Protein backbone atom coordinates (compact mmCIF):
# COMPACT_ATOMS: atom_id res chain seq x y z
CA UNK A 1 0.00 0.00 0.00
CA UNK A 2 1.28 3.43 -0.94
CA UNK A 3 2.11 5.89 1.83
CA UNK A 4 0.06 8.68 0.23
CA UNK A 5 -3.53 8.09 -0.79
CA UNK A 6 -4.49 10.58 -3.52
CA UNK A 7 -8.07 11.67 -3.95
CA UNK A 8 -9.03 12.89 -7.38
CA UNK A 9 -12.12 15.05 -7.72
CA UNK A 10 -12.42 14.07 -11.38
CA UNK A 11 -10.89 10.64 -12.16
CA UNK A 12 -11.13 11.28 -15.92
CA UNK A 13 -8.83 14.25 -15.69
CA UNK A 14 -5.44 13.42 -17.20
CA UNK A 15 -3.36 16.34 -15.99
CA UNK A 16 -1.31 15.85 -12.86
CA UNK A 17 -2.89 17.51 -9.83
CA UNK A 18 -0.78 18.49 -6.87
CA UNK A 19 -2.47 16.94 -3.80
CA UNK A 20 -3.42 19.00 -0.77
CA UNK A 21 -2.44 17.82 2.69
CA UNK A 22 -5.51 16.85 4.76
CA UNK A 23 -4.64 19.44 7.41
CA UNK A 24 -4.47 22.14 4.73
CA UNK A 25 -7.79 20.93 3.32
CA UNK A 26 -9.35 21.46 6.76
CA UNK A 27 -7.79 24.93 6.90
CA UNK A 28 -9.64 25.78 3.67
CA UNK A 29 -12.89 24.57 5.24
CA UNK A 30 -12.41 27.01 8.14
CA UNK A 31 -14.36 27.11 11.40
CA UNK A 32 -17.99 28.19 11.33
CA UNK A 33 -21.59 27.13 11.97
CA UNK A 34 -20.91 23.49 11.21
CA UNK A 35 -18.17 23.36 13.83
CA UNK A 36 -20.44 25.07 16.35
CA UNK A 37 -23.00 22.29 15.87
CA UNK A 38 -20.18 19.73 15.98
CA UNK A 39 -18.83 21.15 19.26
CA UNK A 40 -22.31 21.26 20.81
CA UNK A 41 -23.09 17.67 19.81
CA UNK A 42 -19.72 16.25 20.84
CA UNK A 43 -19.81 18.23 24.07
CA UNK A 44 -23.24 16.82 24.86
CA UNK A 45 -21.89 13.34 24.04
CA UNK A 46 -19.19 13.75 26.68
CA UNK A 47 -21.68 15.29 29.10
CA UNK A 48 -23.99 12.31 28.58
CA UNK A 49 -21.24 9.79 29.38
CA UNK A 50 -20.61 11.48 32.75
CA UNK A 51 -24.30 11.91 33.61
CA UNK A 52 -25.21 8.30 32.82
CA UNK A 53 -22.36 6.87 34.91
CA UNK A 54 -22.78 9.20 37.91
CA UNK A 55 -26.54 9.82 38.17
CA UNK A 56 -27.35 6.59 39.99
CA UNK A 57 -25.13 7.72 42.87
CA UNK A 58 -27.48 10.61 43.56
CA UNK A 59 -30.54 8.38 44.02
CA UNK A 60 -29.00 5.39 45.81
CA UNK A 61 -28.87 7.26 49.19
CA UNK A 62 -32.62 7.99 49.06
CA UNK A 63 -34.59 6.02 51.62
CA UNK A 64 -37.58 6.18 49.25
CA UNK A 65 -35.69 4.20 46.62
CA UNK A 66 -34.29 1.84 49.28
CA UNK A 67 -37.76 1.01 50.52
CA UNK A 68 -39.43 0.74 47.11
CA UNK A 69 -36.85 -1.72 45.75
CA UNK A 70 -36.02 -3.31 49.11
CA UNK A 71 -32.30 -2.69 48.65
CA UNK A 72 -29.60 -4.46 50.59
CA UNK A 73 -26.10 -3.05 51.08
CA UNK A 74 -24.58 -5.51 48.59
CA UNK A 75 -27.24 -4.67 46.00
CA UNK A 76 -26.43 -0.99 46.39
CA UNK A 77 -22.79 -1.76 45.63
CA UNK A 78 -23.69 -3.78 42.53
CA UNK A 79 -26.07 -1.06 41.31
CA UNK A 80 -23.51 1.68 41.84
CA UNK A 81 -20.97 -0.16 39.70
CA UNK A 82 -23.31 -1.64 37.06
CA UNK A 83 -22.88 1.12 34.45
CA UNK A 84 -19.18 1.35 35.17
CA UNK A 85 -18.71 -2.40 34.56
CA UNK A 86 -20.60 -2.04 31.27
CA UNK A 87 -18.26 0.74 30.20
CA UNK A 88 -15.12 -1.26 30.99
CA UNK A 89 -16.38 -4.43 29.28
CA UNK A 90 -17.36 -2.78 25.99
CA UNK A 91 -14.83 0.04 25.45
CA UNK A 92 -12.40 -2.03 23.40
CA UNK A 93 -15.19 -3.58 21.31
CA UNK A 94 -16.67 -0.21 20.31
CA UNK A 95 -13.22 1.17 19.55
CA UNK A 96 -12.63 -1.63 17.05
CA UNK A 97 -16.03 -1.12 15.39
CA UNK A 98 -15.40 2.62 15.06
CA UNK A 99 -12.19 1.88 13.12
CA UNK A 100 -13.69 -1.05 11.19
CA UNK A 101 -14.59 -0.59 7.53
CA UNK A 102 -18.25 -1.52 8.12
CA UNK A 103 -18.47 0.68 11.21
CA UNK A 104 -17.33 4.29 11.40
CA UNK A 105 -17.14 7.04 13.99
CA UNK A 106 -20.55 8.58 13.32
CA UNK A 107 -22.43 5.31 12.83
CA UNK A 108 -21.18 3.71 16.03
CA UNK A 109 -21.70 6.88 18.09
CA UNK A 110 -25.26 7.27 16.81
CA UNK A 111 -26.17 3.63 17.50
CA UNK A 112 -24.61 3.72 20.96
CA UNK A 113 -26.15 6.99 22.16
CA UNK A 114 -29.59 5.92 20.86
CA UNK A 115 -29.37 2.57 22.68
CA UNK A 116 -28.10 4.26 25.86
CA UNK A 117 -31.09 6.64 25.75
CA UNK A 118 -33.54 3.73 25.39
CA UNK A 119 -32.03 1.74 28.26
CA UNK A 120 -31.80 4.85 30.44
CA UNK A 121 -35.54 5.49 30.01
CA UNK A 122 -36.21 1.78 30.66
CA UNK A 123 -34.20 1.95 33.89
CA UNK A 124 -36.64 4.53 35.26
CA UNK A 125 -39.43 1.97 34.76
CA UNK A 126 -37.67 -0.86 36.65
CA UNK A 127 -40.02 -2.86 38.86
CA UNK A 128 -37.25 -4.49 40.90
CA UNK A 129 -33.58 -4.05 41.70
CA UNK A 130 -32.29 -6.67 39.23
CA UNK A 131 -34.06 -5.09 36.26
CA UNK A 132 -32.58 -1.76 37.34
CA UNK A 133 -29.09 -3.27 37.59
CA UNK A 134 -29.36 -4.90 34.14
CA UNK A 135 -30.67 -1.75 32.44
CA UNK A 136 -27.96 0.41 34.06
CA UNK A 137 -25.35 -2.13 32.93
CA UNK A 138 -26.52 -1.76 29.32
CA UNK A 139 -26.57 2.02 29.67
CA UNK A 140 -22.87 1.80 30.52
CA UNK A 141 -22.26 -0.83 27.83
CA UNK A 142 -23.55 1.48 25.09
CA UNK A 143 -22.43 4.83 26.49
CA UNK A 144 -18.81 3.66 26.34
CA UNK A 145 -19.13 3.61 22.55
CA UNK A 146 -19.76 7.34 22.70
CA UNK A 147 -17.01 8.33 25.15
CA UNK A 148 -13.72 7.64 23.33
CA UNK A 149 -15.09 7.89 19.78
CA UNK A 150 -16.30 11.42 20.46
CA UNK A 151 -12.73 12.71 20.76
CA UNK A 152 -11.62 10.96 17.57
CA UNK A 153 -14.68 12.21 15.68
CA UNK A 154 -14.29 15.81 16.87
CA UNK A 155 -10.54 15.87 16.22
CA UNK A 156 -10.83 14.70 12.62
CA UNK A 157 -12.91 17.75 11.65
CA UNK A 158 -10.28 20.21 12.98
CA UNK A 159 -6.89 21.16 11.65
CA UNK A 160 -3.86 20.75 13.89
CA UNK A 161 -3.76 24.34 15.14
CA UNK A 162 -7.39 24.22 16.34
CA UNK A 163 -7.69 20.57 17.37
CA UNK A 164 -6.43 20.68 20.96
CA UNK A 165 -8.30 23.91 21.71
CA UNK A 166 -11.69 22.60 20.63
CA UNK A 167 -11.16 19.26 22.32
CA UNK A 168 -10.55 21.16 25.56
CA UNK A 169 -13.66 23.25 24.98
CA UNK A 170 -15.67 20.05 24.46
CA UNK A 171 -14.32 18.88 27.81
CA UNK A 172 -16.13 21.79 29.48
CA UNK A 173 -19.35 19.85 28.95
CA UNK A 174 -18.04 17.08 31.20
CA UNK A 175 -17.76 19.64 33.97
CA UNK A 176 -21.30 20.80 33.10
CA UNK A 177 -22.37 17.21 33.81
CA UNK A 178 -21.01 17.57 37.34
CA UNK A 179 -23.26 20.59 37.78
CA UNK A 180 -26.23 19.09 35.91
CA UNK A 181 -26.71 16.06 38.17
CA UNK A 182 -26.52 17.93 41.48
CA UNK A 183 -28.59 20.82 40.12
CA UNK A 184 -31.37 18.46 39.06
CA UNK A 185 -31.04 16.59 42.34
CA UNK A 186 -31.10 19.81 44.31
CA UNK A 187 -34.21 21.13 42.57
CA UNK A 188 -36.17 17.90 42.16
CA UNK A 189 -35.12 15.42 44.81
CA UNK A 190 -35.26 17.98 47.61
CA UNK A 191 -38.73 19.10 46.44
CA UNK A 192 -40.14 16.02 48.14
CA UNK A 193 -39.50 17.84 51.41
CA UNK A 194 -42.34 20.15 50.40
CA UNK A 195 -44.67 17.80 48.54
CA UNK A 196 -44.34 14.19 47.50
CA UNK A 197 -44.44 13.89 43.72
CA UNK A 198 -45.62 10.61 42.22
CA UNK A 199 -48.08 9.26 39.67
CA UNK A 200 -49.27 5.81 38.76
CA UNK A 201 -48.61 4.00 35.46
CA UNK A 202 -51.32 1.30 35.32
CA UNK A 203 -49.90 -0.34 32.18
CA UNK A 204 -46.75 -1.50 33.98
CA UNK A 205 -48.21 -1.42 37.47
CA UNK A 206 -45.79 0.93 39.18
CA UNK A 207 -45.76 4.30 40.89
CA UNK A 208 -43.49 6.83 39.17
CA UNK A 209 -41.78 8.38 42.15
CA UNK A 210 -39.20 11.15 42.46
CA UNK A 211 -36.09 9.02 41.87
CA UNK A 212 -37.59 7.68 38.63
CA UNK A 213 -38.27 11.24 37.47
CA UNK A 214 -34.64 12.10 38.22
CA UNK A 215 -33.37 9.21 36.04
CA UNK A 216 -35.77 10.21 33.26
CA UNK A 217 -34.53 13.82 33.25
CA UNK A 218 -30.94 12.55 33.18
CA UNK A 219 -31.80 10.70 29.95
CA UNK A 220 -32.75 13.95 28.17
CA UNK A 221 -29.16 14.83 27.04
CA UNK A 222 -28.69 11.43 25.37
CA UNK A 223 -32.05 11.87 23.63
CA UNK A 224 -30.96 15.30 22.40
CA UNK A 225 -27.66 13.90 21.08
CA UNK A 226 -29.58 11.14 19.26
CA UNK A 227 -31.52 13.87 17.43
CA UNK A 228 -28.50 16.11 16.68
CA UNK A 229 -26.45 13.25 15.22
CA UNK A 230 -28.86 13.15 12.25
CA UNK A 231 -27.42 16.51 11.13
CA UNK A 232 -23.76 15.49 11.19
CA UNK A 233 -21.82 13.45 8.59
CA UNK A 234 -19.20 10.73 8.90
CA UNK A 235 -15.60 11.75 9.58
CA UNK A 236 -13.90 12.57 6.23
CA UNK A 237 -10.58 11.29 7.54
CA UNK A 238 -12.16 7.95 8.41
CA UNK A 239 -13.56 7.75 4.87
CA UNK A 240 -10.13 8.51 3.46
CA UNK A 241 -8.68 5.69 5.54
CA UNK A 242 -11.32 3.43 3.96
CA UNK A 243 -10.35 4.71 0.47
CA UNK A 244 -13.81 6.28 -0.01
CA UNK A 245 -12.27 9.27 -1.71
CA UNK A 246 -15.25 10.93 -3.35
CA UNK A 247 -17.43 10.60 -0.25
CA UNK A 248 -14.79 12.32 1.89
CA UNK A 249 -14.36 15.16 -0.58
CA UNK A 250 -18.13 15.60 -0.85
CA UNK A 251 -18.44 16.01 2.94
CA UNK A 252 -15.60 18.57 3.02
CA UNK A 253 -17.35 20.54 0.25
CA UNK A 254 -20.61 20.55 2.22
CA UNK A 255 -18.88 21.67 5.41
CA UNK A 256 -17.07 24.38 3.44
CA UNK A 257 -20.32 25.81 2.08
CA UNK A 258 -22.06 25.62 5.47
CA UNK A 259 -19.21 27.54 7.08
CA UNK A 260 -18.46 30.06 4.33
CA UNK A 261 -22.00 30.65 3.03
CA UNK A 262 -20.66 31.17 -0.48
CA UNK A 263 -21.30 29.81 -3.95
CA UNK A 264 -17.57 29.70 -4.64
CA UNK A 265 -16.33 26.18 -5.26
CA UNK A 266 -14.29 24.43 -2.59
CA UNK A 267 -10.71 25.09 -3.77
CA UNK A 268 -9.35 21.64 -2.86
CA UNK A 269 -9.61 19.04 -5.65
CA UNK A 270 -7.22 16.37 -4.42
CA UNK A 271 -6.19 15.34 -0.91
CA UNK A 272 -3.16 13.41 0.33
CA UNK A 273 -3.56 11.39 3.53
CA UNK A 274 -0.04 11.04 4.84
CA UNK A 275 -0.61 7.91 6.90
CA UNK A 276 0.09 4.29 6.10
CA UNK A 277 -3.16 2.47 5.45
CA UNK A 278 -3.16 -1.29 5.71
CA UNK A 279 -6.84 -2.23 5.67
CA UNK A 280 -6.88 -4.34 2.50
CA UNK A 281 -4.64 -6.97 4.02
CA UNK A 282 -7.26 -7.56 6.79
CA UNK A 283 -10.30 -8.03 4.52
CA UNK A 284 -9.97 -11.81 4.18
CA UNK A 285 -9.75 -12.43 7.93
CA UNK A 286 -12.65 -13.33 10.24
CA UNK A 287 -14.19 -10.74 12.55
CA UNK A 288 -12.14 -11.77 15.59
CA UNK A 289 -8.97 -12.08 13.52
CA UNK A 290 -9.55 -8.54 12.34
CA UNK A 291 -9.89 -7.40 15.95
CA UNK A 292 -6.51 -8.93 16.74
CA UNK A 293 -4.89 -7.56 13.57
CA UNK A 294 -6.30 -4.13 14.36
CA UNK A 295 -5.14 -4.24 17.98
CA UNK A 296 -1.77 -5.88 17.44
CA UNK A 297 0.03 -2.68 16.28
CA UNK A 298 -0.58 -1.11 19.72
CA UNK A 299 1.73 -3.70 21.27
CA UNK A 300 4.48 -3.61 18.67
CA UNK A 301 7.13 -1.09 17.72
CA UNK A 302 6.84 1.82 17.05
CA UNK A 303 3.55 2.19 19.01
CA UNK A 304 4.31 -0.05 22.00
CA UNK A 305 6.02 2.58 24.18
CA UNK A 306 3.36 5.15 23.30
CA UNK A 307 0.67 2.68 24.39
CA UNK A 308 2.45 1.90 27.68
CA UNK A 309 3.15 5.53 28.57
CA UNK A 310 -0.29 6.90 27.75
CA UNK A 311 -2.00 3.95 29.48
CA UNK A 312 0.02 4.56 32.65
CA UNK A 313 -0.83 8.27 32.65
CA UNK A 314 -4.55 7.59 32.04
CA UNK A 315 -4.52 4.92 34.77
CA UNK A 316 -2.99 7.43 37.21
CA UNK A 317 -5.46 10.14 36.23
CA UNK A 318 -8.56 7.98 36.75
CA UNK A 319 -7.33 6.18 39.87
CA UNK A 320 -6.54 9.45 41.67
CA UNK A 321 -9.55 11.51 40.56
CA UNK A 322 -12.37 8.95 40.27
CA UNK A 323 -11.09 6.67 43.05
CA UNK A 324 -11.03 9.48 45.59
CA UNK A 325 -14.06 11.36 44.21
CA UNK A 326 -16.42 8.60 45.38
CA UNK A 327 -15.45 9.43 48.96
CA UNK A 328 -15.49 13.21 48.57
CA UNK A 329 -19.15 13.96 49.52
CA UNK A 330 -18.89 12.09 52.85
CA UNK A 331 -15.56 13.70 53.68
CA UNK A 332 -16.75 17.22 52.81
CA UNK A 333 -19.92 16.78 54.83
CA UNK A 334 -17.90 15.79 57.87
CA UNK A 335 -15.37 18.56 57.29
CA UNK A 336 -18.25 21.03 57.48
CA UNK A 337 -19.25 19.61 60.86
CA UNK A 338 -15.72 20.05 62.21
CA UNK A 339 -14.87 23.34 60.46
CA UNK A 340 -14.28 25.11 63.77
CA UNK A 341 -11.94 22.45 65.12
CA UNK A 342 -8.28 21.80 64.48
CA UNK A 343 -8.89 18.54 62.58
CA UNK A 344 -6.93 17.23 59.63
CA UNK A 345 -8.78 15.42 56.87
CA UNK A 346 -7.49 12.08 58.17
CA UNK A 347 -8.95 12.89 61.61
CA UNK A 348 -12.28 13.61 59.94
CA UNK A 349 -12.14 10.40 57.87
CA UNK A 350 -11.56 8.46 61.06
CA UNK A 351 -14.66 10.05 62.57
CA UNK A 352 -16.68 9.27 59.43
CA UNK A 353 -15.70 5.60 59.58
CA UNK A 354 -16.56 5.38 63.28
CA UNK A 355 -20.01 6.81 62.60
CA UNK A 356 -20.60 4.37 59.74
CA UNK A 357 -19.74 1.46 61.97
CA UNK A 358 -22.46 2.59 64.37
CA UNK A 359 -25.12 2.72 61.64
CA UNK A 360 -27.84 0.08 61.82
CA UNK A 361 -30.14 -1.22 59.11
CA UNK A 362 -33.50 0.48 59.02
CA UNK A 363 -36.38 -1.67 60.16
CA UNK A 364 -39.42 -1.99 57.93
CA UNK A 365 -41.57 0.17 60.19
CA UNK A 366 -39.09 3.03 59.87
CA UNK A 367 -38.95 2.78 56.07
CA UNK A 368 -40.41 6.08 54.92
CA UNK A 369 -39.39 9.14 52.95
CA UNK A 370 -37.11 11.48 54.85
CA UNK A 371 -35.88 14.95 53.87
CA UNK A 372 -32.95 14.86 51.47
CA UNK A 373 -29.83 16.60 52.69
CA UNK A 374 -28.97 19.12 49.94
CA UNK A 375 -25.37 19.52 51.10
CA UNK A 376 -24.04 16.82 48.79
CA UNK A 377 -25.68 18.48 45.77
CA UNK A 378 -24.45 21.95 46.67
CA UNK A 379 -20.87 20.80 47.14
CA UNK A 380 -20.78 18.77 43.92
CA UNK A 381 -22.40 21.65 42.02
CA UNK A 382 -19.66 24.04 43.13
CA UNK A 383 -17.00 21.49 42.20
CA UNK A 384 -18.49 21.15 38.72
CA UNK A 385 -18.53 24.92 38.30
CA UNK A 386 -14.86 25.07 39.33
CA UNK A 387 -13.94 22.32 36.86
CA UNK A 388 -15.82 24.16 34.08
CA UNK A 389 -13.58 27.18 34.61
CA UNK A 390 -10.47 24.98 34.48
CA UNK A 391 -11.62 23.34 31.23
CA UNK A 392 -12.16 26.79 29.68
CA UNK A 393 -8.76 28.05 30.82
CA UNK A 394 -7.12 24.92 29.39
CA UNK A 395 -8.81 25.55 26.04
CA UNK A 396 -7.55 29.14 25.93
CA UNK A 397 -3.91 28.46 26.84
CA UNK A 398 -3.27 24.96 25.48
CA UNK A 399 -1.83 26.08 22.14
CA UNK A 400 0.42 28.67 23.75
CA UNK A 401 1.73 26.42 26.50
CA UNK A 402 1.72 23.12 24.61
CA UNK A 403 -0.32 20.00 25.35
CA UNK A 404 2.47 18.04 27.04
CA UNK A 405 3.69 20.97 29.12
CA UNK A 406 0.15 21.81 30.28
CA UNK A 407 -0.57 18.19 31.20
CA UNK A 408 2.70 17.88 33.10
CA UNK A 409 2.13 21.16 34.96
CA UNK A 410 -1.35 20.10 36.08
CA UNK A 411 -0.07 16.75 37.32
CA UNK A 412 2.67 18.46 39.35
CA UNK A 413 0.16 20.91 40.87
CA UNK A 414 -2.37 18.15 41.66
CA UNK A 415 0.32 15.85 43.04
CA UNK A 416 1.67 18.52 45.40
CA UNK A 417 -1.87 19.37 46.55
CA UNK A 418 -2.61 15.69 47.20
CA UNK A 419 0.56 15.32 49.24
CA UNK A 420 -0.35 18.34 51.42
CA UNK A 421 -3.97 17.34 52.14
CA UNK A 422 -3.38 14.97 55.10
CA UNK A 423 -1.11 17.48 56.87
CA UNK A 424 -3.47 20.48 56.65
CA UNK A 425 -5.81 21.30 59.54
CA UNK A 426 -7.52 24.49 58.30
CA UNK A 427 -11.02 23.82 56.90
CA UNK A 428 -10.86 26.20 53.93
CA UNK A 429 -7.32 25.19 53.01
CA UNK A 430 -8.39 21.53 52.96
CA UNK A 431 -11.31 22.35 50.66
CA UNK A 432 -8.98 24.26 48.33
CA UNK A 433 -6.36 21.49 48.26
CA UNK A 434 -9.00 18.82 47.60
CA UNK A 435 -10.38 20.84 44.69
CA UNK A 436 -6.90 21.17 43.18
CA UNK A 437 -6.17 17.48 43.76
CA UNK A 438 -9.40 16.38 42.05
CA UNK A 439 -8.68 18.75 39.16
CA UNK A 440 -6.40 16.03 37.75
CA UNK A 441 -9.66 14.58 36.41
CA UNK A 442 -9.99 17.41 33.88
CA UNK A 443 -6.64 16.41 32.35
CA UNK A 444 -8.39 13.60 30.47
CA UNK A 445 -9.27 15.92 27.59
CA UNK A 446 -5.65 17.12 27.33
CA UNK A 447 -4.33 13.56 27.26
CA UNK A 448 -6.97 12.61 24.67
CA UNK A 449 -5.80 15.54 22.50
CA UNK A 450 -2.27 14.13 22.72
CA UNK A 451 -3.51 10.61 21.90
CA UNK A 452 -5.13 11.63 18.61
CA UNK A 453 -1.73 12.92 17.48
CA UNK A 454 0.20 9.84 18.60
CA UNK A 455 -1.83 7.13 16.83
CA UNK A 456 -2.66 6.85 13.09
CA UNK A 457 -6.20 7.25 11.77
CA UNK A 458 -6.81 3.57 11.04
CA UNK A 459 -6.34 2.58 14.73
CA UNK A 460 -7.10 5.90 16.41
CA UNK A 461 -10.50 5.02 17.87
CA UNK A 462 -9.40 1.61 19.13
CA UNK A 463 -6.27 3.13 20.72
CA UNK A 464 -8.35 5.78 22.48
CA UNK A 465 -10.80 3.13 23.70
CA UNK A 466 -7.99 0.89 24.92
CA UNK A 467 -6.26 3.67 26.87
CA UNK A 468 -9.57 4.86 28.34
CA UNK A 469 -10.40 1.28 29.29
CA UNK A 470 -7.11 1.13 31.23
CA UNK A 471 -8.08 4.43 32.87
CA UNK A 472 -11.45 3.09 33.97
CA UNK A 473 -9.82 -0.02 35.35
CA UNK A 474 -7.62 2.42 37.27
CA UNK A 475 -10.75 4.06 38.66
CA UNK A 476 -12.01 0.71 39.97
CA UNK A 477 -8.62 -0.15 41.47
CA UNK A 478 -8.29 3.36 42.90
CA UNK A 479 -11.65 3.10 44.61
CA UNK A 480 -10.77 -0.29 46.09
CA UNK A 481 -7.38 1.07 47.13
CA UNK A 482 -9.04 3.97 48.96
CA UNK A 483 -11.44 1.62 50.76
CA UNK A 484 -8.52 -0.41 52.12
CA UNK A 485 -6.18 2.49 52.92
CA UNK A 486 -8.37 5.40 53.97
CA UNK A 487 -8.71 4.45 57.63
CA UNK A 488 -5.56 2.56 58.57
CA UNK A 489 -3.07 4.37 56.33
CA UNK A 490 -4.66 7.71 55.40
CA UNK A 491 -1.41 9.72 55.09
CA UNK A 492 0.27 6.95 53.09
CA UNK A 493 -2.72 6.79 50.74
CA UNK A 494 -2.46 10.48 49.85
CA UNK A 495 1.30 10.15 49.54
CA UNK A 496 1.01 7.29 47.04
CA UNK A 497 -1.58 9.17 44.97
CA UNK A 498 0.73 12.20 44.96
CA UNK A 499 3.70 10.09 43.85
CA UNK A 500 1.62 8.52 41.07
CA UNK A 501 0.68 11.95 39.72
CA UNK A 502 4.24 13.27 39.92
CA UNK A 503 5.57 10.27 37.97
CA UNK A 504 2.81 10.86 35.41
CA UNK A 505 3.94 14.49 35.12
CA UNK A 506 7.42 13.36 34.11
CA UNK A 507 6.06 10.84 31.60
CA UNK A 508 3.69 13.48 30.15
CA UNK A 509 6.39 15.98 29.24
CA UNK A 510 8.49 13.17 27.72
CA UNK A 511 5.71 11.85 25.48
CA UNK A 512 6.76 11.91 21.82
CA UNK A 513 5.25 14.13 19.16
CA UNK A 514 3.36 12.72 16.20
TrEMBL record:
PROSITE patterns recorded: MFS
This protein's GO CC annotations: membrane
Protein location: Membrane
The keyword 4Fe-4S belongs to this UniProt entry's keyword annotation: no
Every Major facilitator superfamily (MFS) profile domain range: 36-514
MF terms (GO), sorted A to Z: transmembrane transporter activity
Taxonomic lineage of the native organism: Eukaryota, Metazoa, Ecdysozoa, Arthropoda, Hexapoda
UniProt organism field: Clunio marinus
Keyword line: Membrane, Transmembrane, Transmembrane helix, Transport
Positions of transmembrane segments: 36-58, 78-97, 109-131, 137-154, 166-189, 209-232, 310-328, 375-394, 406-424, 430-452, 464-486, 492-511
Pfam families: MFS_1
Protein name per UniProt: CLUMA_CG001280, isoform A
Domain of life per record: Eukaryota
PANTHER family: MAJOR FACILITATOR SUPERFAMILY (MFS) PROFILE DOMAIN-CONTAINING PROTEIN, SYNAPTIC VESICLE GLYCOPROTEIN 2
Protein topology in the membrane: Multi-pass membrane protein
Amino acid sequence: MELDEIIKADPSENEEILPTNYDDALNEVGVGKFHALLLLTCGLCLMTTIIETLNIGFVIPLIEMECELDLTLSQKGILNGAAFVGVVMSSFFWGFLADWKRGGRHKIMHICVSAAFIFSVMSSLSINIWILIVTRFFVGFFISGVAANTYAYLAEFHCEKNRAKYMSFAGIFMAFALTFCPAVGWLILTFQNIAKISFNIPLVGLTYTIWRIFLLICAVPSGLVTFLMFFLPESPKFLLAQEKHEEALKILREVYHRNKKTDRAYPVTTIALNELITRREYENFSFFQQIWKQTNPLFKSPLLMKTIKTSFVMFSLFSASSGFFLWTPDILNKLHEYNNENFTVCNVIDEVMKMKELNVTLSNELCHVTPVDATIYKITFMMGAFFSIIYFVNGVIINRVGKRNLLGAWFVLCGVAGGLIPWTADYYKIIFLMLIFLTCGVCGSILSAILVDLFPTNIRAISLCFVLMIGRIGAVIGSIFVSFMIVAHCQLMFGLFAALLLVSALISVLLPGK
